[in-house]
Specification:
five-stranded parallel sheet
């Protein structure tokens, strides 16, 4: 399973990324939204995990663009927003899951379990 992780801070997410790989995923890292859109078009990932604070685009805007490009890509967003604010910002985007600001191995396992129920 191909997972695209869009983050400008891959070192902080090492445990998260390792747990995704341990769960059977092949993880590709994109450092910004522009690279993510190119990678998603070329590689057709099953899931795109979008980190907050990207250098070139707001995460919910990137999710919307990914959905325009390929509506079959599942998405998850790393966010420090409250549940209510996250729901408001992501309404209508079909985001699979909200992840904590620094997702760890447990968050990766939970995300893979959630993905398994819908993919």
């Amino acid at each position: 399973m191909e997972i695209l992780l869009v983050t400008a801070r891959p070192r902080v997410l090492t445990d998260f990324t390792a747990a995704l790989a341990a769960g059977g995923a092949h993880v590709t890292i994109a450092p910004d939204a522009a690279t993510a859109l190119e990678s998603a078009a070329a590689g057709r990932p099953v899931l795109c995990v979008v980190d907050e604070n990207l250098p070139d685009l707001e995460p919910f805007t990137l999710v919307a663009r990914l959905m325009q490009q390929n509506a079959l890509i599942f998405t998850a967003v790393v966010s420090g927003l409250s549940e209510a604010d996250f729901h408001e910002a992501g309404e209508g985007l079909g985001i699979l899951k909200r992840l904590p600001p620094t997702p760890d191995a447990a968050a990766a396992k939970d995300l893979l379990a959630t993905l398994a129920t819908v993919a």
